[in-house]
Design goal:
single chain; Growth Hormone, Chain: A; globular; disordered N terminus; disordered C terminus
Amino acid sequence: MPKGDRLLADIRPLRESAAFRRLWAGTTLSSVGGALTSFAVILQVYDLTHSPFAVGVIGVAQMVPTLVIGLLSGVVADATDRRKLVLVTSGGLAAVSAAFAAQAFAGLRLVWLLYVLVAVKSSLGAVGSPARSTLIPSLLPASQVPAGLMLNRLSFQIMMTAGPALAGLIAAVPQLGLRACYLIDAVSFAASLYAAARLPAMRPSASAARPGPRAVAEGITFIRRSPVLAGAFLADLNATVFGLPVALFPAINAERFGGNPRTLGLFTAAIGLGGLVSAAFSGPVMHSSRQGRAMLCAVIVWGAAFAGFAISPILWLTLSLLAVAGAADTFTVVFRGAILQAVTPDQLRGRVMAADYVVGAGGGQLGNLEAGALGSLTTPTISALSGGLATIAGVIVIGLALPAFTRYRRQPHDLSHKGLQSAGTDAGLHGG
């Protein structure tokens, strides 16, 4: 393989699996469309209320369904045809986007309706996202699963970078505005629905558990008893709860850079750009077999970057450190996903990925709450610096407490591949 190919992200899953290629393209388009709606909802609620609190309630409308439905959705994914589940939830999300567009074109100006639609969208996402995450090991051979996860992360970074910028441009045009953002989102689901409809059936195994509290408990017990899975979840929570100072961005921007909104926008853009570049040039890193150690190293870089951000007085250095944090976040997410997919048997994959979804969504919110509270009690600089250092200390504790996670090596044919052989045979998959 040429050196340039080794440097760039491994795109074999896109070349060799038509099903994965369709799914990736559809997910990317619908994700960018979703970013348009997320932007439009925030702006519409603020235009109607001029209240930061009312905008903050959008987060509550998103979080409550995620936490309530998230873990239960994994049981549903393990007990039903995952293709049908993804198709149904994608159709529901398209209908919600159409409802957003309809209320905007009708000029209803009902804030409560926006909250309801956000909650319904979050509920469908809590069911559909874990199910969609389980598809990759069924569509790709085990050796290409990490590359598939990295390509998914690249899709996410494209959404993070292009979505808000595109939404701002569309919303600024009087003839288009928020109505066009909602309408484009609804139309963008056509690609996602087409990709899901073309997937073969993905029926549950004969031993699949019936949905219910006992099945949820079985998934949690499996995670708790596996030091590798426990280490992956704890490493992620350590990074997001202690080392995520997004809530401090406005205060730090005001203290050091005059509070210019454009500078504040660069903070988030720098994280997205760092993640996008690292995903595009991920070839060398993704060949690592020591994924547990690699994930811990990525979390250390994440914490160190935010600790440096806390004390950086120069804008270019601040943005560079945020870009480094974004790059480390990409590798953390992909290594965690690869470990979860490899260690989890297929009959539990939906529940484990649902837990991953809840941890990913909840950890960031807790991190912002922790950073904001400590910043109010002390200073934003102390909060961001202590959070970054606490993240590094947490990695050391996890490494010492869970040596099996640190020693974990990716195997060519591990537990998940055994589970996938039967699943792939039943569904006619395992393509690529």
